[in-house]
Amino acid sequence: MEITMAKQSENMEYQKAINHIVQMVKDGQLIVGSKIPSERDLSESLGIGRNSTREAISILRGMGLVESRHGSGNYIAKDSGAAIRSMIALMLALKTVSEYDLLEFRRYFSHIVVDCVMKKGISEKRKEQLYSIIDKMKTANGQDLVRLDFEFHVGLIECTENPLLITVSRPVAELYIKSMSNVIENADEMIKEKLLSLHTNILDNLVNQDETASTDSFNQHYDLVENRLGGIH
């Protein structure tokens, strides 16, 4: 009984430390990149054991909310999507989700992009960036083409100007492009030209505020990728 109660007390202590750090973020005492109090300081200020504070920081690190810097301490992580990326990567490894699930997510998310752009438009700076990426894709091959494809789609995601949507969808885009890299790298010239044409159509239709054509262009793009993905499995 004493052992059980001691274990419960320890669990409550590390949760207390987690809650304290989260509250500091909510109160604005900690922001992205801020150094969090040391294990010793947390232990003393909260009246809990060092093991509990160490466990709390370890849990927050595993969630991608805290990052450790050797010889410096622990900081609020700059990569807020790390936890999402790690979770989805694990799900892919465990085969509880598939590459097709990532593709389907991207297809559905494209509808959100279209809806946001129809309401907010695309800034001139963003247009220049996206058209510049398309120009570079015309002569790119291999990993350069994979990278540019990723930059183009992330640029479209950022057109939503919604931090939450960007944070949630970017990790999916990163894992998606890893899965699709073989499709892009091994595509023949005809497929590359088709993909380039579809990227151009997507952007042109978004810029022209044509909702139906934008959605159709996205669907054609993902139909092509899905067919190619099926061809290499």
CATH superfamily of the largest domain: GntR ligand-binding domain-like
Task: Please state how the strands of the largest beta sheet are arranged side by side.
Answer: 1-2
Distance between the termini: 55 Å
What is the name of the CATH class of the largest domain? Mainly Alpha
Helix content: over 70%
Largest sheet: 2 strands, antiparallel
| Shape summary | elongated
The tally of strands reads 2
GO molecular function: DNA binding; DNA-binding transcription factor activity
Protein name: Transcriptional regulator, GntR family
Pfam family, one: GntR
Keywords: DNA-binding, Transcription, Transcription regulation
Task: Tell me what the structure shows.
The chain has 233 residues and is mainly alpha-helical. It folds into 2 domains: 9-78, Winged helix-like DNA-binding domain superfamily/Winged helix DNA-binding domain (Arc Repressor Mutant, subunit A); 98-230, Up-down Bundle (Four Helix Bundle (Hemerythrin (Met), subunit A)), CATH 1.20.120.530. Helices cover 75% and strands 3% of the residues. The chain has 10 helices and 2 strands; from the N terminus they run αααββααααααα. A two-stranded antiparallel sheet has the order 1-2. Strand 1 and strand 2 form a beta hairpin. It is elongated and about 65 Å long. It starts with a helix and ends with a helix. Mean pLDDT is 87; it is low at 1-8.
